[in-house]
Design goal:
126 residues, alpha/beta, three-stranded mixed β-sheet, 5 helices, binds zinc ion
């Protein structure tokens, strides 16, 4: 029986799920999972440490290390070889809305509080 994998919590979905070179490029795309995208968002964009990232995603530090390493490798492949990068799927659960999320960088919590600046929560503002 396969051991059930622990779900990685993802607090923000990508705005765009497909990226690629404007000219030429490699025919084989690179597929990035949503939890890999989340690790890049937390560590590279928001400046979280791997510990903070692990806490927010609800997994062990060693798992974050693996996920992050894979994500970085895929970014490098895309950049260096000119491959299209698509973000979809993975082994994750979307953060259940919002107020009670423990993550200080939870985009979904910000969205529920209507301060994340995404199209949806601005539209909903009345
Ligand atoms: Zn969250």
């Amino acid at each position: 029986m396969p051991r059930p994998k622990k779900c990685r919590r993802v607090c923000a979905l990508p705005r765009c799920s497909s990226f690629g070179p404007l000219e030429g490029g490699h025919p084989e795309p690179v597929g990035m999972a949503l939890e890999e995208y989340e690790a890049i968002r937390l560590i590279d964009l928001l400046g979280c440490t791997q510990e903070e990232c692990a806490r927010q995603m609800g997994v062990a530090r060693s798992t974050v290390q693996q996920v992050y390493d894979q994500a970085r490798r895929k970014l490098a492949l895309s950049l260096v070889e000119g491959r299209r990068l698509t973000i979809s799927g993975g082994d994750y659960m979307l953060c259940p809305q919002a107020e009670d999320c423990a993550g200080r960088n939870c985009a979904r919590r910000d969205c529920a509080r209507r301060r994340c600046g995404c199209g949806n929560c601005t539209q909903n503002k009345t």
